[in-house]
Amino acid sequence: MATKITPLGRRVLVKRSISEEKTAGGLFLPDTAKEKPQEAEVLALGTGKDDEGKDVSELFTVKVGDKVLISKYGGTEVKLDGEEMLILNETDILGIVG
Q: pLDDT digits over 21-77, tens only?
């Protein structure tokens, strides 16, 4: 059964890209030594309502499918159907890749 998450407000659901398992020199890194990637794919956009209930959905600068750079320590990690994802404010997105 697939579960669906719809972020609220100006939040965005993203999935981090897979991190490199090997260094440039050819050494394999254990999971504990890997740094979490800052590149992610946008999976869902929030409802687009601000604190007063006003619709601000047209103000989103990203769209579903965009590859983005996210802040290193922003957002909240969630697990959905065994996959790790991140819900963060749109302000935690640093830029669009590509």
A: 666 676 766 655 555 668 999 999 988 776 677 776 677 889 999 999 999 888 999
Domain that holds residue 77: 11-18+36-96
Q: Residue 84: which residues within 8 A CB-CB, separation 6 or more?
A: 15, 16, 77, 78
Q: What is the CATH number of the domain that holds 50?
A: 2.30.33.40
Residue 23 lies in a domain: no
In the chain, how many domains are there?
1
Q: What are the distances in angstroms from CA 17 to CA 1, 20, 37, 59?
A: 24, 9, 6, 25
pLDDT band at residue 1 using 50, 70 and 90 as cut-offs? very low
What is the secondary structure of 62-80 as a DSSP string?
Answer: --TT-EEEE-TT-SEEEEE
